[in-house]
Amino acid sequence: MKKIGFLSFGHWSPQSRTRSAADALLETIDLAQAAEQLGADGAYVRVHHFAQQLASPFPLLAAIGARTKRIEIGTAVIDMRYENPLYMAEDASAADLIAGGRLQLGISRGSPEQVIDGWRYFGYQPAEGESDADMGRRHAEVLLDLLRGQGFAQPNPRPMFPNPPGLLRLEPYSEGLRDRIWWGAGSNATAVWAAKLGMNLQSSTLKNDETGEPFHVQQAAQIRAYRDAWKEAGHTRAPRVSVSRSIFPLVDDRDRAYFGRESGQQDQIGYLDEQTRAIFGRSYAAEPDALIAQLKADEAIAEADTLLLTIPNQLGVDYNAHVIEAILTHVAPALGWR
């Protein structure tokens, strides 16, 4: 069985059904509840700063955690260039405890931004000889170390409240969260790096174009390289791997009106910056029988244990719940995902 969840960027605009930030936040909570009732496995959000999209994830994740019982809650991904790892460890642990240990925290060095070097406005800058990507990975390593729950801070000899013996750790501490950190890898090399550090792998709908092969073939190779590195590192638990896809079964007139002429059904090539050539994976939109045949040929979906469905959140909760239900009902069983 494959875990299936949704991934929302949380766009809003006055011209859509999701007109404001409040709409985007509250509708994401409602959709998570609906997805749980439908039998989906995950509710994930993307984090973008300086944009009319979801940004600070932990209040939202905590709210979803308080309003649901079973579904995994997570991010895909948080840009670590913007993060204070200590404050983040406290926020993440609190959200995880509220959710009863259901947090799956996806982090990364980040993607192209709305502003130039936006992390500088948040008070961060790379150390001498360090790139912004290096800084993001450094922040990630600090976070991982903090989530081990080991004491590191010298206690005050005259504290306001009594201290336990020894060095102090951050509180609250959530047991097991360290094993539920995922790295969003854009290249094979960063996937291998994530495996060595014991992070799960998130691979999205774009990656560096490293071989010129179709997107799903390159992504499957990335996943295999990750699993090989995981095994070589000697970790004792089994890793998890997710891929993201835009998938729309055409089962009624609304689907055909919205996606019947879907134009993104081929991989696309672009540049993330002047040096980085990227390949963007295709979208899938077809009648269920045709969709099943297309998805059977996607090597990366076959390699992954978790599938995140990127949703058009601006079309509203009811329509997105319909899309999730259509996939769970008309597509997933035929592919052995259910």
Automatic annotation (TrEMBL):
Q: Where is the Luciferase-like domain?
A: 12-256
Instruction: Tell me any Pfam family this protein matches.
Output: Bac_luciferase
- Matches recorded under Gene3D superfamilies: Luciferase-like domain
Instruction: Tell me the superkingdom of the source.
Output: Bacteria
One GO molecular-function entry: oxidoreductase activity, acting on paired donors, with incorporation or reduction of molecular oxygen
Per the record, GO CC terms? cytosol
Protein name, as recorded:
LLM class flavin-dependent oxidoreductase
Species of origin:
Rhodopseudomonas palustris
